[in-house]
TrEMBL record:
Protein name from the UniProt record: Class I SAM-dependent methyltransferase
InterPro entries named in the record: Methyltranfer_dom, SAM-binding_MTase, SAM-dependent_MTases_sf, WH-like_DNA-bd_sf, WH_DNA-bd_sf, WHD_Rv2258c
Short name of any one Pfam family annotated for the protein: Methyltransf_31
Methyltransferase domain sequence ranges: 179-289
Any GO BP annotation: methylation
Keyword check for Kinase: no
Natural source organism: Billgrantia kenyensis
Record has Transferase as a keyword: yes
Domain S-adenosylmethionine-dependent methyltransferase Rv2258c-like winged HTH, chain residue ranges per copy: 34-105
Keyword set, alphabetical order: Methyltransferase, Transferase
GO molecular function: methyltransferase activity
Length: 365
C-alpha cells in the first residue's frame, strides 16, 4: 500500500471503546430523562408532597397536589423506572425515600431539583442557538423564559444561606462597617434577593442593585416595597460602558454574584467597579470555579454541564449584545488577568465548602 493510500485508509476502530461509549450514551439518555422528570416534579409540587416519605397511590397524590391523575400516574411510572421513588405493586403505592427527599426537596440542606430545571430551560432556545452556530451572533435575554426565576432559586442555595456567616467575613471588616452604615452596589443583581437580605440585616447601610432585565428589576422593586426596605433601590441598567458611566468613588462595597462572565464587556464592568469604589472599599465577586484551559477542566465535577450552559446562555447573551462572549468557563487565570487590568492591587480567591461550583474573590484597589 502506498503512503497516500495508507493516509486515506480509515483508522482501526476499537470495538471495546465503541461498546463502552454506547453504554455510556444510553445511560446518559436515561439520566437526562430523569432530570426532566425531576424538573417537572419540582415545579408542579410533586416532590414537595412526597417529601414526608409516606406511601401514596397515584389518585391520592393527584388529590394532594391538585394535579391531573393521568399525568401524575405516568410520572410515577417514570420515577419508578428511574429509581427516584419506590413502588409497592401489591398496594399500588409510591414512596420517595428519605435519602432522596434530603436531596430533592427543601427538607435537606440543598435542593438539587433546582438545578434539574436548567436543561429543559435551555432546550427552549436550542433552535436560536443553532442559528448562531451557522451565522454567529447570540440569543438575547428576552428569549429566556423563567431564567431569573431559576437563578434566584440557585442563588438561594449558594449565596443566601451563607451570606452573613461565610461570604461577608471573607473581608473581615465588612460586617462591622455594614452595621455602622456604608453604600453598597450589586451589579447584575437579578431579582435582588441578596440585597434584600442585606438591607434587612443592616438598616443603617444603603443598597443599590443594577440589572439589564426589566422583568427582574420590576420583580425586585415590587418585593422590596412590600417589605418596606426604604434603604434599597433597583435600577434597570446596561453595564456595557460602566467603565465610563460608573460614579467615581461612590460605593464602599460592590458585589457581583455569578454575573461577570455573561456581561457584554466584562473588562469594562470591572474597570467601572474599580472606578466607583471609595478608598478602602471592597469588591466581592462570586463567579464560576474553572480553569481558563480546556484540559484543566477535564476533572471538573460539573464541567460538562457548565460548558453546555455557556453555549446555551452565558456566552450567547453576551454575543447578542455585540459583546465579548467570555463564557461561563472563563476560569481563574483569565479572571486574575482581568482583575489586574481593571486596576485591583489585592486579589484573593477562596472556595467555600458548600459550593463546588463557584469561586469567591475579594478584591481591593
Amino acid at each position: 500500500m502506498t503512503a497516500q493510500a495508507q493516509a486515506q485508509a480509515p483508522a482501526a476502530i476499537d470495538a471495546t471503546r465503541v461498546a463502552g461509549f454506547e453504554s455510556r450514551f444510553v445511560a446518559a439518555l436515561n439520566e437526562a430523562a430523569m432530570l426532566q422528570l425531576v424538573s417537572l416534579a419540582h415545579r408542579s409540587g410533586l416532590l414537595a408532597h412526597l417529601a414526608d416519605g409516606e406511601p401514596v397511590t397515584s389518585s391520592e397524590l393527584a388529590a394532594k397536589t391538585k394535579l391531573n391523575e393521568r399525568y401524575v400516574r405516568e410520572w410515577l411510572g417514570g420515577a419508578t423506572v428511574a429509581a427516584l421513588v419506590e413502588h409497592d405493586p401489591q398496594t399500588l403505592t409510591y414512596r420517595l425515600p428519605p435519602e432522596h427527599a434530603a436531596l430533592l426537596t427543601d427538607s435537606g440542606e440543598a435542593n438539587l431539583a433546582v438545578y434539574a430545571q436548567y436543561l429543559p430551560l435551555m432546550g427552549q432556545v436550542e433552535d436560536d442557538v443553532l442559528e448562531c452556530f451557522h451565522h454567529g451572533g447570540g440569543v438575547p435575554y428576552t428569549r429566556y423564559a423563567r431564567f431569573h426565576e431559576v437563578m434566584a432559586e440557585d442563588s438561594g442555595q449558594t449565596v443566601l444561606p451563607v451570606l452573613f456567616d461565610a461570604i461577608l467575613p471573607l473581608a473581615p471588616e465588612l460586617p462591622a462597617r455594614l452595621e455602622r452604615g456604608i453604600d453598597v452596589l450589586d451589579l447584575g443583581c437579578g431579582r435582588g434577593l441578596a440585597l434584600m437580605k442585606l438591607a434587612e440585616r443592616f438598616p443603617a447601610s444603603r443598597f443599590t442593585g443594577y440589572d439589564l432585565s426589566r422583568e427582574a428589576i420590576g420583580w425586585a422593586t415590587e418585593r422590596a416595597a412590600r417589605r418596606g426596605l426604604s434603604n434599597l433601590r433597583f435600577e434597570e441598567r446596561d453595564l456595557s460602558d460602566f467603565d465610563l458611566t460608573a460614579p467615581a468613588q461612590r460605593y464602599d462595597l460592590v458585589t457581583t454574584f455569578d454575573a461577570i462572565h455573561d456581561q457584554a464587556h466584562p473588562l469594562n464592568l470591572l474597570k467601572g467597579v474599580r472606578r466607583t469604589l471609595r478608598q478602602g472599599g471592597v469588591y466581592l465577586a462570586q463567579d464560576i470555579h474553572s480553569s481558563s484551559h480546556h484540559h484543566g477542566d477535564r476533572d471538573h465535577p460539573m464541567g460538562t454541564l457548565l460548558y453546555t450552559l455557556s453555549i446555551m446562555h452565558c456566552m450567547s447573551v453576551s454575543l447578542a449584545q455585540g459583546g465579548e462572549g467570555l463564557g461561563t468557563m472563563w476560569g481563574r487565570e483569565k479572571a486574575r488577568e482581568y482583575f489586574g487590568k481593571a486596576g485591583f492591587g489585592s486579589i484573593e480567591v477562596h472556595q467555600l465548602p458548600h459550593d463546588i461550583q463557584n469561586d469567591y474573590w475579594v478584591l481591593r484597589p
